[in-house]
Amino acid sequence: MKYISLDEYKKAWVFRHKDMPISSEDATQIKPMSAERAAVLWTTMVSREHDHPDFFDKTDWCGKEDSFSETINWENAWEAGDEQLPEEILNHLAWEANTTVYFCMARDNIIETSFAVFKRCWQNFMFLADGSLLLGKKRDAVVQFLETGNAKLGKKGAVK
Q1: pLDDT digits (tens, 9 = 90+) for 9-20
Q2: What are phi and psi of 152, to 5 degrees?
């Protein structure tokens, strides 16, 4: 099985937050991956060696400073209740609405959705910002959301 239901997802509360409701249509498109499926994607797109962003080092593309070109603040927009992601993130990604995206929190914890759904529900996802990476299927641009309220904008490198 590739996905678990949102009802079974241990952090599903972020998508049921009373102050940040999401539509039932969007909820059906937020698909937490099974641990097995997440591990395969993590190993091929993020890191073979490290299970969580806290442990990235220079052996991982995502642990290298030169993978990221800019750091911006996402938390101000989140605190202000902005419906849109910060403009710098949107401009950096420049993805189509139907781009499949992966919100990668750990080797066993990845959510798949479309970029359109992510953009509409971005505030909910930010409850999970702990070094989490937003990757697009067959896309090089990446954003790493840090719990400090900053986001690093960069390009995905090869997994070694």
Answers
A1: 999 999 998 889
A2: -100, 130
Tokens read off for 160: 């070694």
pLDDT tens digit sequence for 72-89? 999 999 999 999 999 999
Query: Hunting for tokens 């952090």 — which residue is that?
Result: 11
Burial class (CB in 10 A: 0-12, 13-18, 19+), 155: middle
Cβ(71)–Cβ(151) below 8 Å: yes
What pLDDT does residue 160 have?
A: 63
Alpha-carbon distance 112 to 3, whole Å? 9
* Alpha carbon distances (Å) from 80 to 53, 74, 77, 130, 142: 27, 10, 5, 20, 24
Phi and psi torsions of 7, nearest 5°: -65, -30
Q: How many Å separate Cα 18 from the centre of its chain?
A: 22
| Nearest-angstrom CA–CA distance, 126 and 60 | 23
CA distance 156 to 92: 13
Nearest to 157 by CA among 71, 67, 94: 67
Distance, in Å, from the CA atom of 98 to the CA atom of 101, rounded to the nearest integer, reads 9
